Known about the structure:
By secondary structure, this protein is of the alpha+beta class. Helices cover 29% and strands 24% of the residues. The protein has helices at residues 9-22, 72-81, 128-139, 176-179, 190-197, 250-259, 272-277, 306-314, 318-324, 355-364, 380-393, 407-415, 433-441, 458-468, 473-490, and strands at 27-29, 47-48, 52-57, 86-88, 94-96, 99-106, 109-114, 154-161, 164-169, 213-219, 223-228, 241-246, 264-267, 282-287, 290-296, 330-332, 371-377, 398-404, 421-427, 493-505, 508-509, 512-513, 519-520, 525-527. A hairpin with a 3-residue loop joins strand 10 (213-219) and strand 11 (223-228). The longest helix is centred in the C-terminal third of the chain and has 18 residues, at 473-490. The relative contact order is 0.16.
Amino acid sequence: MKKTFLTTIFTLFLVACGNVSNNDTNNYNASPNDNQNAQSNTLSESTNFGGELIFLQANSPNSFDPHLQNDGASAQANRSIYEGLTAFDADGNLTPLLAESWEMISDTVWQFNLRRGVVFHDGTPFNAYAVKTSFDRLLDPLAGHAGAFIIEMINETEIIDDYTIHLHLNFPFSPLPAHLAAMVALIISPTAIEIERNGGVLVRDNPVGTGPFSFYEMVAGEYTRFVAFDNHWRARPYIDSLLFRVVPDTTVRLLMVESGEAHASVASASDVTNINLSPTLNPFQTQGSNLTYIGFNTNIEPFNDIRVRQAMSMAINKDDFVYAIIEGQGIVARSPLSPLVAGSTIDLIQLDQNLEEAKTLLEQAGFPNGFGATIHTSNSEHSRIAELAQYQLAEIGIDLQIVQMEFGAFQDFTNNGNHELFVLGWTAFTGDADYGLYPLFHTSMHGAAGNRTFYSNPTVDSLLERARASSDQNYRNELYAQVQQILVTEAPMIYLYHPIATLAYNGIQGILQHPNIVPQFHEARILN
Length: 528
């Protein structure tokens, strides 16, 4: 009988929210395999060991250096190469990985007890020196790594012994263990870092981690190949190699998985109906912490006028996007934060659809007849979002032109502020409001760090800084509620929906998908 992992949105929320509320990140000691998804624990009699598993991506990874890029394709690749001190399992629970346990020994000092017997792909032993070398590289102010803000609360890394490290913070920060599960906190081989430091091959071209697969080769725009790491501390993967093929079109990817030409692909939410009708496809679904949004460049006219942004927000019917674009596979966004994220609130005054009010606001802003603008996208789903927005905004006289770009070019274009409007997504990977808000809206995060709307508000900056410096979760929640209300009112984005993440697979078992839409292949097996 065909397996399905579809459940109702309500059930997904109950399960996920229950998991979040039971997490205790201040003192943790558990096995990393305590909470595996059920499908990874059942070995079919028709399972083959070995072989090459083919996973389809929309884009090539931009970099194999986790300190440099945080895009989806890079994350999918780097999660197979590298590992961090902590991780999230398929149910969204924070678990140990390279750290066996941790505890907060004072308001600003955390102790992490490291796993023994772990080696990097190049044979270098994993220990406290490796952690210190990796974190110090990320935090080096001269390096200017865009993702350093994720652990910038760390002031000093202190080696206590080979397998104990203390992280001294600039201020109390209770979500630290969750932040260490982020991609930029993955641990790079100190030997690879030393080679780069001495003028040799760069880490981005010589990725060396402790993960279940080691990098083998990449042909940009075509494929990336990884091979099983024989000496992985959790045992060698079942498959011999992993091939990430680049297929930009979501429909083509789905057909390739359905026909058996490939084994798995991240699917569009709009594909779920076809997946369920297919005799060969299986869906793996998780309600995650993702946000899909339309962003304004608030640095340029007319989008530096709050009335224009509010008017455009009030011309949008978000329900249409949920049902027309993702076929009900998600929920309307009431703020930038998914309800699964700690610190989120839906008790906010909204800019609900009101065409007459929108027209009045445009007239007050000096555009009684509307205006023309360009919106940039980087894939087919985002282009369909732009098309629906184009239709709805025409009701208030805005003529929207759509330009779809290759993802790398799109990133550079929006990082540099060359856009007017754009469609993009963000995942609050840590499950905490800091990661869902700080990179997207703090003034220091303009451009590649995440704030592509170039939004700046001193009040929001101050609230975000105070919230990340507090260990009182109730106080943090109050501050984040204020931030969310300001962001809904000032509308640097049109917050569209929080989609359910869908992975389509065929002919394999044991694959896991985290709520951050990053599949895990360590336990994957190819079926006959």
